[in-house]
Structure formats: C-alpha cells, structure tokens
Amino acid sequence: MKFAVFGNTHQVEKSSYAKTLFDLLKKRGAQLYIWKDFYSFLQMQMKLDVKDFEAFDTDSFDADMAISIGGDGTFLKTANKVGKKNIPILGINTGRLGFLADIFPEDIETVIDEIYNNHYTLEERSVLCMECDNNRQISPYALNEIAVLKRDSSSMITIRAAINGKYLTT
C-alpha cells in the first residue's frame, strides 16, 4: 500500500509516534511518502532517519490512504492537501479532543493490522468551498462546516448557499 503521511510540525510531542508508525508500515512493505514540511521536521527537530522514505511537496501526490499525525487541526490541513482526490484519511490523535483524528497512538498497531486486513469502514464527510462576491476562493476546502463572521456588530452580511450548484435556503 502507498501512504501519504502528514503531521504536526510545531510540537515534537505531537509527532513522537511517527517512528512507531513508520516501523510498522515498513514491516508491511508499505511505500511511504511524507509531506515535505513534516519530512524536514522529522529530520531536523526529531532527528529521525527518514531517508528510506520519499518527500513530496506538490498536491499531485498519489496514495491509497493519507495518514495525519496530530490533532484535529493537522487533520484539517491534511484534508486540505488531499482535496478532491477521494483518498481516505486516517487521523492519529496526539492532540486533545480528537473529533476528526480519533485513533489513539496506543492503537496504531491494531489499526494498521485492520487496514491491511480490510477490516475498516470509511466515514463520509462533506467537503465545502467558500467564495466571496469577487469570486475569490477563501480556502480550498473545509470539512462539515464553515464559520462566517462579520467585521463589526453594526454591519449586515448576505449569504447565498448552494449544494452542487443548486440554491439552498439559508
């Protein structure tokens, strides 16, 4: 299997389970592609030997599954990079709550076994995109929700929502 791996690049403790994951996947003969920022972080900050893996820095990567190591913020950044590729994302939660990244680090080995034995289910998420009046895309993608805030309390905002191009009453 091919895995694209993303991770938290700001807090060493949130990415400390990367070595465990990499060792498990190497034993399985997996191909690992690591997002360039995370690759550099693993080498420079965590002093991990990642030379056996390939770094990638474009959105044109291909993988059977993406893995996000961090909290929900890292998961959302991973989803942003995965975009419309229809690649499932496995979220390993090294943050606090873990609504999106809900696999605990101590369960990594069991989860990898389940993936290789096809004993898992995919949870569908809504992918959202927001545009302003000037057709400027604010953020490439969001999952499930977008918050729209007005500049000051005396201003009004108008929202037009559509699903797959069809108007949605707001």
TrEMBL record:
<protein>
    <submittedName>
        <fullName>NAD kinase</fullName>
        <ecNumber>2.7.1.23</ecNumber>
    </submittedName>
</protein>
<dbReference type="InterPro" id="IPR016064">
    <property type="entry name" value="NAD/diacylglycerol_kinase_sf"/>
</dbReference>
<dbReference type="GO" id="GO:0006741">
    <property type="term" value="P:NADP+ biosynthetic process"/>
</dbReference>
<dbReference type="Pfam" id="PF01513">
    <property type="entry name" value="NAD_kinase"/>
</dbReference>
<dbReference type="InterPro" id="IPR017438">
    <property type="entry name" value="ATP-NAD_kinase_N"/>
</dbReference>
<dbReference type="InterPro" id="IPR002504">
    <property type="entry name" value="NADK"/>
</dbReference>
<keyword id="KW-0808">Transferase</keyword>
<keyword id="KW-0418">Kinase</keyword>
<dbReference type="GO" id="GO:0003951">
    <property type="term" value="F:NAD+ kinase activity"/>
</dbReference>
